C-alpha cells in the first residue's frame, strides 16, 4: 500500500452549489500532506467525504484501501479526526470528551494522553462550555494524537491556537511522522504547511489546481527583487519574465520568473548595484498566484494545470 | 445593524432601540406565529362552543358535568360563568392560551439574552456602543410588546367570533398579563444559569408549580389560588366579572421581577450565570464510554425533569380522584348519564382518560428527545462521533433508545404515583396495578409519535423539527377538540393516542396495542434506513 488517500474526479453538489468539482488528491502513506485552499474552497467537504459523512456524487475515493462510505466504521478504527470547528457538549468536561473520543475510535494510550495534556497546557476538569475555541481544539487534538491511528485527518487544527501552542503542535506532528503515520493537514496558515508538509495540494473552487512537493511548486515561481542602484534603472520592462515593476525613492521593485533571473541580474549590474534583496517565493505567493487577480493579468492559465509528482 | 448600534448613547441602556429593531427583525416570523397560534385556539374554542351549546339545555348539561368536575377544573380554571357560552369558552381555553403566552415570553427573553450570550454574540454586540443593560431591556420590551399584541389580537378576534367585546378584551388582557409575569420570571432565570436549556427547565418548572398551585386553589376554592400568577390572571373572570384589578398584581410582579433581573445582571460576568460551574471529572467514567452512555448523559437532565414532572402530574390526578368520587356519588344526573355503574370503576375510567393527556406530554418529550439527534447533527457534535468507529445506526439508535425508554419511564412514573395515591385512598393494593397498567397502555401510542419523528429525522432532516412539532400540535388539537366538537371520526383516528383502549370503560384488547407497536417499529426502521443513506448535515 503506497497511497493512504486516493481521490480522483470527486464531485459533490449541494443543491445548485457544486462544492467539489472534479477534485484530485493523492496522499502517500507516511507523509504529511498539506491540503491548502481559501475558506469555502472545499477542504472540509472533501474531508467529510473521506470520513463517509457525505456521499460522493461521482468520482473515485479510496481511503486506506477501503471505500469511505461503505466501510466507514472499519476505516474509522484506523484514523483520527480533528474538525475545523470543534464543538463539544457543554456539560461534559474536556477530560471526559478525550476519553470518549479515544474509546470510540479504538482506544488511546493513557501515558501519551497525560503527556499531551501537559504539553498543550489543558485543564481536563473544566466543562466544555467554559473552554475557548483554542481549548476545544486542544481537546480534539489530544484525543487524536494520543490514539495510535495510522492516519490523522486534521481540518485547520491550529486556527484557535496561540503561537506557543502552534509550536507544540508542530512538534507533535513531526513525532507522528517519525512514527511513520500519515497526516492530512488542511490549512490556510501557510507557514504551518511550509514547516510541516512533505507535499501539498492546493485547491480552489472544489478543484485541485496544483499539487507536489514545495520544491516542485517553488521552481514554477518567481523571485521578488528589491534593488538600489547608483543610476536609475531603465529597460527592465522589456526583459522577459519581469512583472509588477515600480520605482520608488531610488529603489526598484519587481518580480521575475526563474528563467528570466539571470538576464535581469546582468542587466541590473550595469546600473551599479549598491543593495539587492531577493526573497524566495513563499506559499503566500503561491496562493496569490492562484487566488489573486494577477494570474489573469499575467496571462497565466487560470485553469491551472495540476502538477503531479 | 452595525452602524445603528454605534449611534446610541453611552448610558447602560444605550443601543436598546437598535437592538430592539434588530430583535423584531429576527423574530418577524416567530412572534406572529405564537400570537396567531394563541388567538387561533381561542377562536376555535369560541366558534366550536357556540355551535355546540346552542340551547340552554346543552349549556346546563355542560355546567353540570364540567363545572363540578375536579379534573376539568384542575386543567381549566375557576368554574365561573359556566351558564353562558362565553364563560364556558373562557373556562375551557384560558389556561392553555396562558401556557402559550408564558412559553412565548420565555423563549423570546431567553433567545435574545442568554442564548446570544452563550453563543458569544452578545460579546460582539456589547463591544459596540451598547450599554450593559441594553440586551436584557430590549428582550423584555420585545416580549412585553408581544404580550400586549397577543392580548389585543385575542380581544379583537374573539369579539369578531361573536362573543361580548369587553369580556373578549379582558380575556386577552389576562393572557397577556400572564405572559408579562413570565417575561419577568425569564428575565431572572437567564441571570441564574449560564445555559439556555437550563433557563427553559427553570421557567418551565416554575410554570408547572404555578399551574398546580392554581389547580389546587381552584378545586378547594381557597386562598391557595392567589399564590399563583396564573390564578391572578384567571381571577379577572372574563365575560362574568370583567375585573381588571387582579392584572395590576400581575404587572406589578412582572415589573419587580424584571427589576430583579437587572440587579442580578450587575452581579455577574458576561457569559456566566450566578451559579458558577464546579470543576468536573478529569477522566470519563466507564459508563460514558459508549454511544449509549453518551446519549444517556446528554438526555438525563431532561429525562429526569420530565419523569418528575409527569410523576407529579400523576400525583395531582390521583389526589383529585377523591373529589371526583364524591362529586359523582352526589351527582345523580351524572350517575344516570353513565348508567349507574360502580363509582370506583367510574373513577378509574376518569383517571384512565386523564392519562391520555399525560400521554400527550410524554409524546412531546419523546419527540424532543428524538429531535436531539438533529440538534447534535446541526451543532456539529455528531460529526466527531461519527468520525470514530461508531456506526450511524448505533449513534441514532442510542438517542432513539433513550427517547423510547425515557417516554415509557415518564409514563410509568405518572402511573406509579397515581396508583400509590389511589391505593392509599381506597385501601386496595390492586388499584396500584390498575393505574400502572392504564398509564403504560399508552406507551405504544407514544412510540408511534416518536417513530414519526425518527422518520422525519431520517428522511427530511431540514424540515424535521418544524414538521415533528406540527404533528404534536395536531395531536394536541385532536385530543382537546375532536371529541367535544364532534369532528369527523377519521380526524380523531389520526391520533395514535385515541387507539389505545381506555380501561375499564373499554374492553382491553391486545389488537390495537400490537398494531401500534408494529407501526412504531416500521416507522423507526424507515427512519434508520433514511438516516444511513443520507449525508450528514452540518451547520
Automatic annotation (TrEMBL), chain A:
Keywords: Antibiotic resistance, ATP-binding, Nucleotide-binding, Transport. Its main location: membrane. Pfam families: ABC_tran. Gene3D superfamilies: P-loop containing nucleotide triphosphate hydrolases. GO terms for cellular component: plasma membrane. Residues 5-230 form the ABC transporter domain. It is a peripheral membrane protein. The keyword Transport applies. It is found in: Cell membrane. One of its GO terms (molecular function) is ATP hydrolysis activity. One of its GO terms (biological process) is response to antibiotic. SUPFAM superfamilies: P-loop containing nucleoside triphosphate hydrolases (SSF52540). Coiled coil: none annotated. CDD domains: ABC_DR_subfamily_A. Belongs to the ABC transporter superfamily. PANTHER family: ABC TRANSPORTER ATP-BINDING PROTEIN (PTHR42711), ABC TRANSPORTER ATP-BINDING PROTEIN NATA (PTHR42711:SF5). This is Efflux ABC transporter, ATP-binding protein. It comes from uncultured Acidimicrobiales bacterium.
Amino acid at each position: 500500500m503506497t497511497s493512504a488517500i486516493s481521490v480522483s474526479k470527486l464531485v459533490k453538489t449541494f443543491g445548485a452549489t457544486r462544492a467539489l468539482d472534479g477534485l484530485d488528491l493523492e496522499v502517500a502513506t507516511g507523509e504529511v500532506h498539506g491540503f491548502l485552499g481559501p475558506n469555502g474552497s472545499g477542504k472540509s467537504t472533501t474531508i467529510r467525504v473521506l470520513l463517509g459523512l457525505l456521499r460522493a456524487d461521482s468520482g473515485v475515493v479510496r481511503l486506506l484501501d477501503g471505500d469511505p462510505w461503505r466501510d466507514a466504521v472499519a476505516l474509522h478504527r484506523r484514523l483520527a479526526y480533528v474538525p475545523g470547528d470543534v464543538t463539544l457538549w457543554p456539560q461534559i468536561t474536556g477530560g471526559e470528551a478525550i476519553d470518549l473520543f479515544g474509546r470510540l475510535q479504538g482506544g488511546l494510550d493513557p501515558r501519551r494522553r497525560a503527556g499531551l495534556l501537559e504539553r498543550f497546557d489543558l485543564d481536563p476538569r473544566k466543562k466544555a462550555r467554559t473552554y475557548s475555541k483554542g481549548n476545544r481544539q486542544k481537546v480534539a487534538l489530544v484525543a487524536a494524537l494520543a490514539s495510535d491511528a495510522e492516519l490523522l485527518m486534521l481540518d485547520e487544527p491550529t486556527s484557535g491556537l496561540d503561537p506557543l501552542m502552534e509550536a507544540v503542535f508542530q512538534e507533535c506532528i513531526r513525532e507522528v511522522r517519525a512514527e511513520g503515520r500519515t497526516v492530512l493537514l488542511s490549512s490556510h496558515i501557510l507557514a504551518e504547511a511550509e514547516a510541516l508538509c512533505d507535499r501539498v495540494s492546493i485547491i480552489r473552487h472544489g478543484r485541485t489546481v496544483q499539487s507536489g512537493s514545495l520544491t516542485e511548486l517553488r521552481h514554477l515561481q518567481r523571485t521578488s527583487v528589491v534593488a538600489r542602484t547608483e543610476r536609475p534603472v531603465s529597460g527592465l520592462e522589456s526583459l522577459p519574465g519581469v512583472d509588477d515593476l515600480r520605482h520608488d525613492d531610488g529603489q526598484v521593485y519587481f518580480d521575475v520568473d526563474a528563467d528570466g533571473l539571470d538576464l535581469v541580474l546582468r542587466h541590473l549590474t550595469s546600473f551599479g548595484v549598491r543593495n539587492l534583496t531577493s526573497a524566495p517565493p513563499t506559499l503566500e505567493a503561491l496562493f496569490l498566484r492562484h487566488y489573486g487577480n494577477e494570474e489573469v493579468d499575467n496571462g497565466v492559465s487560470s485553469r491551472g494545470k495540476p502538477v503531479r509528482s | 445593524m452595525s452602524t445603528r448600534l454605534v449611534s446610541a448613547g453611552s448610558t447602560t441602556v444605550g443601543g436598546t432601540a437598535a437592538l430592539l429593531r434588530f430583535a423584531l427583525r429576527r423574530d418577524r416570523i416567530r412572534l406572529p406565529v405564537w400570537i396567531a397560534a394563541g388567538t387561533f385556539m381561542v377562536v376555535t374554542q369560541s366558534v366550536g362552543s357556540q355551535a355546540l351549546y346552542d340551547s340552554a339545555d346543552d349549556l346546563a348539561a355542560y355546567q353540570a358535568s364540567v363545572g363540578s368536575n375536579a379534573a376539568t377544573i384542575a386543567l381549566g380554571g375557576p368554574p365561573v360563568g359556566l351558564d353562558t357560552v362565553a364563560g364556558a369558552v373562557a373556562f375551557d381555553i384560558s389556561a392553555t392560551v396562558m401556557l402559550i403566552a408564558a412559553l412565548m415570553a420565555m423563549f423570546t427573553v431567553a433567545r435574545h439574552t442568554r442564548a446570544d450570550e452563550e453563543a458569544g454574540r452578545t460579546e460582539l454586540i456589547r463591544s459596540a456602543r451598547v450599554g450593559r443593560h441594553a440586551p436584557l431591556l430590549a428582550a423584555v420590551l420585545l416580549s412585553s410588546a408581544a404580550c400586549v399584541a397577543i392580548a389585543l389580537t385575542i380581544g379583537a378576534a374573539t369579539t369578531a367570533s361573536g362573543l361580548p367585546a369587553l369580556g373578549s378584551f379582558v380575556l386577552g388582557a389576562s393572557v397577556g398579563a400572564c405572559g408579562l409575569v413570565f417575561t419577568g420570571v425569564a428575565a431572572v432565570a437567564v441571570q441564574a444559569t449560564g445555559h439556555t436549556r437550563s433557563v427553559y427547565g427553570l421557567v418551565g418548572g416554575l410554570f408547572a408549580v404555578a399551574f398546580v398551585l392554581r389547580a389546587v386553589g381552584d378545586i378547594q376554592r381557597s386562598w391557595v389560588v392567589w399564590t399563583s400568577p396564573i390564578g391572578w390572571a384567571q381571577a379577572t373572570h372574563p365575560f362574568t366579572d370583567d375585573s381588571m384589578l387582579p392584572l395590576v398584581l400581575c404587572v406589578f410582579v412582572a415589573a419587580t421581577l424584571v427589576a430583579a433581573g437587572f440587579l442580578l445582571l450587575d452581579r455577574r460576568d458576561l457569559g456566566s450565570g450566578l451559579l458558577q460551574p464546579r470543576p468536573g471529572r478529569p477522566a470519563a467514567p466507564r459508563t460514558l464510554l459508549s454511544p449509549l452512555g453518551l446519549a444517556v448523559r446528554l438526555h438525563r437532565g431532561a429525562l429526569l425533569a420530565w419523569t418528575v414532572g409527569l410523576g407529579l402530574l400523576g400525583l395531582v390526578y390521583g389526589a383529585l380522584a377523591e373529589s371526583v368520587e364524591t362529586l359523582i356519588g352526589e351527582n345523580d344526573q351524572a350517575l344516570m348519564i353513565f348508567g349507574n355503574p360502580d363509582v370506583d370503576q367510574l373513577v378509574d375510567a376518569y383517571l384512565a382518560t386523564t392519562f391520555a393527556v399525560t400521554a400527550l406530554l410524554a409524546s412531546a418529550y419523546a419527540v424532543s428527545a428524538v429531535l436531539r439527534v438533529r440538534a447534535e447533527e446541526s451543532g456539529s457534535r455528531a460529526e466527531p462521533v461519527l468520525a470514530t468507529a461508531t456506526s450511524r445506526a448505533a449513534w441514532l439508535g442510542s438517542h432513539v433508545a433513550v427517547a423510547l425508554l425515557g417516554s415509557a419511564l415518564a409514563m410509568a412514573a405518572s402511573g406509579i404515583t397515581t396508583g400509590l395515591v389511589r391505593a392509599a385512598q381506597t385501601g386496595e393494593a390492586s388499584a396500584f396495578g390498575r393505574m400502572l397498567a392504564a398509564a403504560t397502555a399508552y406507551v405504544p401510542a407514544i412510540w408511534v409519535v416518536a417513530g414519526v419523528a425518527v422518520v422525519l429525522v431520517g428522511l427530511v432532516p431540514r424540515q424535521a423539527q418544524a414538521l415533528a412539532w406540527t404533528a404534536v400540535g395536531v395531536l394536541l388539537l385532536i385530543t382537546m377538540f375532536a371529541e367535544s366538537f364532534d369532528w369527523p371520526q377519521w380526524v380523531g383516528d389520526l391520533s395514535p393516542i385515541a387507539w389505545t383502549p381506555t380501561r375499564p370503560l373499554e374492553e382491553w384488547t391486545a389488537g390495537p396495542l400490537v398494531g401500534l407497536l408494529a407501526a412504531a417499529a416500521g416507522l423507526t426502521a424507515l427512519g434508520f434506513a433514511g438516516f444511513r443513506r443520507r449525508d450528514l448535515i452540518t451547520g
